């Protein structure tokens, strides 16, 4: 039995705290206190040997600066996103606080609500420290099949980029463009995220695995995805603020689209879908954008 502290009691942190409780001693903490029997102070949670970080990518940099003290914990980062303000990946953001040997990143297709119902799920623990990845893979319950990989950057790119493609897929659905267009967008999205990942040294095979195609197909084809629902909102002509207010939860694809835009300003990369998603978030007509993407 391992002592696990989950930080961030949103949808995903709560679902993972539930899942990890099958085999471990789990406590949870969050910015907003919750009335839960295992809810503890941040100080208590940080004393656990295993820490699960469920704070969104856009907020974690400030959070780490203000709250985190490393004292040998093993850290599993479960967020999926790239920081909009800087274009930094999560492994870069965490590096000044946690040594590479102590950190792992979770990827794979996993809606929190299904994990919370103990439905079968398969995930990947990614770390440059293989022993640590195996250690974290062991904490998962019987209904979650856990794999390990050393391709941290591939997992990060795939997990973050698929949220942007899911926004595009939601727009496609919202505009009623049909299943042919959706399949084209999703498969071109997979190629686009792979091309981006390869430029950062990711492994090609990661993009056809659970954290790549697996998570992309899940998120880009279901209204259960918050990012897909952002796309539906954009297709209806709503702006970002209205959409986020209705959603009431995080949609990492928005910040990540801005991050990809920031990155593409400095690097010569061809990111057509991400570019259109960024432009639609900035007010471009979705009909125009999808026409630009899907017609000759
Ligand atoms: N939901 C899902 O199915 C999955 C989500 N993910 C990823 O997990 C991450 C979290 O998503 P999810 O839990 O669903 O999102 P939610 O919107 O449900 O929750 C967001 C969480 O972030 C915390 N938070 C927000 N801003 C801050 C801040 N400034 N400082 C500290 N804490 C903050 C909130 O704390 P509080 O509520 O206490 O204010 C809350 O715990 C995202 O990166 C998402 O992409 C990955 C796989 C599946
Ligand atoms: O990452 C997820 C599933 O793997 C959750 O996606 P959404 O944030 O779009 O709901």
UniProtKB/TrEMBL annotation:
Record-annotated Glycerol-3-phosphate dehydrogenase NAD-dependent N-terminal domain positions: 33-132
Protein family: Belongs to the NAD-dependent glycerol-3-phosphate dehydrogenase family.
SUPFAM superfamilies: 6-phosphogluconate dehydrogenase C-terminal domain-like (SSF48179), NAD(P)-binding Rossmann-fold domains (SSF51735)
Domain Glycerol-3-phosphate dehydrogenase NAD-dependent C-terminal: 151-288
Described purpose of this protein according to its UniProt entry: Catalyzes the reduction of the glycolytic intermediate dihydroxyacetone phosphate (DHAP) to sn-glycerol 3-phosphate (G3P), the key precursor for phospholipid synthesis.
Catalytic reaction(s) noted: sn-glycerol 3-phosphate + NADP(+) = dihydroxyacetone phosphate + NADPH + H(+); sn-glycerol 3-phosphate + NAD(+) = dihydroxyacetone phosphate + NADH + H(+)
Annotated GO MF terms: glycerol-3-phosphate dehydrogenase (NAD+) activity; glycerol-3-phosphate dehydrogenase (NADP+) activity; NAD binding
Positions annotated to bind substrate: 80, 226-227
UniProt protein name: Glycerol-3-phosphate dehydrogenase [NAD(P)+]
GO BP field: carbohydrate metabolic process; glycerol-3-phosphate biosynthetic process; glycerol-3-phosphate catabolic process; glycerophospholipid metabolic process; phospholipid biosynthetic process
Residues binding NAD(+): 8-13, 112, 226
E.C. no: 1.1.1.94
Positions of NADPH binding: 12, 31, 80, 112, 226, 250, 252
Keywords annotated in UniProt: Cytoplasm, Lipid biosynthesis, Lipid metabolism, NAD, NADP, Nucleotide-binding, Oxidoreductase, Phospholipid biosynthesis, Phospholipid metabolism
Entry annotation: catalytic residues: 162 (proton acceptor)
Pathway assigned to this chain's UniProt record: Membrane lipid metabolism; glycerophospholipid metabolism
Lineage top rank: taxon: Bacteria
InterPro entries recorded: 6-PGluconate_DH-like_C_sf, 6PGD_dom2, G3P_DH_NAD-dep, G3P_DH_NAD-dep_C, G3P_DH_NAD-dep_N, NAD(P)-bd_dom_sf
Chief location of this protein within or outside the cell: cytoplasm
Location(s) in or outside the cell: Cytoplasm
GO annotation, cellular component aspect: cytosol
Positions with a binding annotation for sn-glycerol 3-phosphate: 80, 108, 110, 162, 215, 225-227
